[in-house]
Each structure stands twice: as structure tokens, then as C-alpha cells.
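Late entry, written up from scratch paper. The run itself happened at the end of the previous shift, but nothing got recorded in the book at the time, so transcribing now.
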Amino acid sequence: MKRRTFLKNAFQLSALSSLPILQSHFSPSIKIKPYQVFWIHLEGAPIREVFDFWPDPYNQFSTTELEHKKEKLFLKFGEYLLPKLWKENPQSKFLLNHWLSVRGIALNGPHLKQSRSSWFRKKEDPEKSIIESFNESFQRAQLGSAKIYSLDGLTRSLYEPLLKNQIQELKTGQLKELFKEWKDEANQKNKLNPLQLGIIRSPSPLSKKFEDFDRWDQDTKEEYLKFYDGLIKELTQFALYLDQLDQFQHSALLITSDRRKVPTSLNRDPELEAVWEGGNFSLISGALNGPVVLGDIYREHPKYKESYPMTWGASPHPYSPAHIHQLIMDLCLAGQQSGNYNPREENPWVVPRSLQGLYIKGLMGRVI
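Output as recorded:
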């Protein structure tokens, strides 16, 4: 890379993320504190466009009516289009100021069971779940185990055998109950559980599961907008609560899903299809200066652009769910593990630093 190009890219990232490009040296006597991770996993291919899959303003997708109206917001990372519901939440700017969104995650299988396994099983040891590996590492570091919640009994019956971990079923099945549990955890003087995982399979206790929505019609829009509006409000209130406790700087809120659904056409009320490319996730933390979007994606899918005239969020350099697992380990065990990472396992997005919070390693994602 030419020196001029390198400096240009470095300046752009510095301006976008408000973080230094060059890794600074710091005293080894300054200890990096582990992060408390609160992880929400949306099970069963939810549609994410109305929440955190933010398209480029010149993307064809932005011409659809998926979100009723899309409004241009001028944020640090450029003229991106955010869903209208963000504009309608007056406190949402607090989240956006600490938001990292990552696109272009490839999933291992097109079927729900395969996708679920790819998210929670280890390739090198398929008999062992990721949660088991987490717990073993936590115990070696003299930390507690992961604590897992489900919002319905079916989720509990599906995941307990897969994760080999006891799951607490919440009585009301409401988001508010999950965040109440998390507030109680945040109030504990001794943080026994470095990882809190909440698994959600439907927009509400009386709704269909995410995987059963097959058309983006008015009823589906209302279900999703109500769910994500509630999620943004709960995330905002919880983040502000952590901030009041002086814990937001060392907490991370993570939102993932094993697949996502996309509209199949630009027609009115298009059918929805689950795709196994172009996954995304979001990370919120007081240690981040955002909003920042990482991950290059295609403007049109290179293989299916004739039959599907929009982006799937597919990437020329796809990430893996294993990178997210490593990210969680890096956060929960910050300062507890060796700095000699295996490059194949290192998460490609952020690294904990004592003086810099979460250091963002990548350049801003492009639509190409």
C-alpha cells in the first residue's frame, strides 16, 4: 500500500471512530479489567433491516418500503440510512454514540438446525458446546459460569441439550423481565457470572416465531417494529442504568442471530426468505466511540443478482460465528489470558486496551 493511501485510510478511521489508529504503548502495570457481557441471541432468522442492518444510502435496498419511511441521519460514519424508529426514540442517540455494527458474517448451513449448531458447537470438537468452552475458560480464570435465560419453554427444551447448561425460563416471556434480571446481576457486588445470555425466538409471547414469518406485510411490519422499538428502549434504559452504576465502561451488550430473513423482491408485501450469508451483529459498550459500521458487503449478490435485485449483505471476505465467540472470550477474559493469540481465532474487530477502552482494528465497511 502506498504511504499516501495508508495515511488517508488511517485519517479516515481516526475521524470516524474517534480512536487512535496506531496502537499506543502503555505501562504493563495498568491492568485491563474483564468486561461483563450481556448477550441477546435472536433465534430463527429474524429480519434485521428495521433494527441494525444499516444499508448504504446508494444501495438498491433503500428504495423499498420495508420501513415505511427511511430518514437520512448524518452520523460520524457518513450519510447512512437508519430506520425511522431510531429517530422516534429520543434517548437512542446515547446507544448510537457507543454502537458498533458488523456486517458480512457467513453461516455454515441454510437450515435452522445446522445454523444453530454452527453458532454454538465447536468445529474441532463437535461434542462440546461453545458455552462449555466458555465455562471451562472462566473457571480457569477463577470466574463463574455463563448464565442463560430463555423467554419460553420450547427454547429451553431446544437449547439445554445443545449447550449442556442449565437455562432459566422467564415466567412472563417479556423483554422487561430479562432486563430486570440483568439489572439485578449488575447490582451484585461480586460479579460471579461474566456472561449473561438471553435467547429470544419471537417478537412477543403471543407472536409467531421469527422463523415463521414468511411475508413482509402490514401485520409483520407492526410486529417487528413494536419488538425492535421495545428492544431499543430496553437497551437504552439498561445502558443508562449501567452508566449510573459506573459499569458501562466495562460492560458490553451484544445482539446476534443465527440467520436473517430478507425480502425476495421490490414488490409490495414481498415474500421473506432465510439466507445463510450476510449475517450481522451489534455491540454496545461505554468503551466504544461510535457509531461505527465494519464489514464490506456486495451491493448486489454476485451469484443471484438476476433473480434477487438487492444485497444479501454477503461479503467478499466473510466473517465467521467463531470470530464472535472469540470476541466474547476476549471481552470476558480481558487481562486474564495470554496476549499471544492464534491469528485464526483472533476476533478481527476490537481488542481491549487499558487506556483506550475497546480499540477498533478495522476500517469502515463499504458497499462494493
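DSSP finds nine helices and 14 strands in the chain.
(Scratch paper discarded after transcription.)
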